[in-house]
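Dock flavin mononucleotide; give full complex structure.
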Amino acid sequence: MDLSTTYLGLDLPHPLMTGASPLVDRLDLVRRLEDAGAAAITMHSLFEEQILLERAARYSQYDEHAESFAEALSFFPNPDEYHLGPDEYLEQIRRIKAMVDVPVIASLNGQTGSGWVDYAKLMQQAGADAIELNVYFLATDPLETGTAIEDRVVAIAASVKQAVSMPVAIKLSPFFSSVANLAYRLDQAGVDGVVLFNRFYQPDIDVESLDVAPRLQLSDSSELLMRVRWLAILSGRIRASLAASGGVHTGLDAVKAVMAGAHATQLVSTLLHHGPAQLKKIHDEMIHWMEDHEYESLRQMQGSMSLLRCPDPAAFERANYTRILQTWRV
Ligand SMILES: Cc1cc2nc3c(=O)[nH]c(=O)nc-3n(C[C@H](O)[C@H](O)[C@H](O)COP(=O)(O)O)c2cc1C
């Protein structure tokens, strides 16, 4: 079975790659991921705040504003709580690249883009094959418009794209007024891939201690459906490649994502839960399903359920919405 695909211009033997996670912080796990057949490896993010904190520490004795700036960063983990510091991160790229043959995608996670775009260059110099930008930002300012936020996301992507020659992917949140328009603008800005979607972790309230309790809950397959919807809407409408991130746990999940238009699927929760060997299991499930359904190649299936030929995807979605509400009988 030919499962080959092209993601960010990288030729991959199949679409199953790892998503950004701490799995790559340990070299023994990276080795096991490659042995289990990962088509590519995405690194844990380097966070904008780590870079800013390091700069604040470096310049604190010269800069009169450094103290208040460092105070603003005090909500964030201490530098030693991050898995890898900025320099260690670059070293980790070099180590992973020396160890594996599959493409290695570095990840930068931030919200302003100022001061950390240079790191994209350093990641490229360290050997990364591509970079994924995660602009994780929750809009809380009532005076800031959606357009201003989207302009910032596009500006960050464009400035990184300008700084490096390697492919650039951007991992989006689903919470934009028009995901389609933002993806289109990013495509126009030259971004090579769009990753759908970032996962938001909803903090809980501890009613006893009156504290905010951040909780990390792994995904399940139900999260895939929102990705499938947007893959199907964007597939064929933008030049950039598409990756599904969120809710891929089985071979059938991966098949659905590919049918909707994914060029790659990123796995995290299932690997954290079951270990690297899960990659091979999902790969084999995909092959069995495709053989049973007489597919000859992944490309034959890719985008077959996209909404590209649908004359009005918005009307189609609304029709599904109204139909589903009528299915519940009391
Ligand atoms: C423990 C953990 C750490 C993660 N770290 C990052 C990260 O550093 N950068 C990032 O963009 N996404 C990060 N993610 C999000 C994943 O890359 C992925 O988008 C999300 O888990 C959805 O995929 P899944 O359903 O396969 O878990 C992390 C997820 C988990 C569970």
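Observed: The pocket of flavin mononucleotide is lined by residues 19-22, 44-45, 107, 109, 134, 171, 199, 216, 218-219, 223, 245-248, 267-269, 272 (CB under 6 Å).
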